[in-house]
Amino acid sequence: MTSGMTTERPLFTAVSSSVRQVFQLLKCINFAQKAHVRISREGLRFAVEESRVVQGIAFLEHALFTSYTYSAPTVDQAEDDDDDDDDNAIVFQISLTALLETLQIFGVNDVKDRWISRESAYGGVAGSLARGNSATPFGNRVLGVTGMCRLSYAAKGEPLCIVIEESGITTTCEMITYEPDYRDEIPLQRDALALKIIMRSHWLYDAITELSSTSPSRLTIEASPSAPYLVFSSTGPLGSATMEFSKDQQLLETFQVPKRTVNSYKHSLIKAASRAMQIASKVSIRGDEQGVLSLQFMIELEGGGVSFIDYRFVPLLPEEGKEDEEKEGGDDHDMDEAVS
Question: What is the mean pLDDT of residues 202-219?
Answer without folding.
Answer: 94
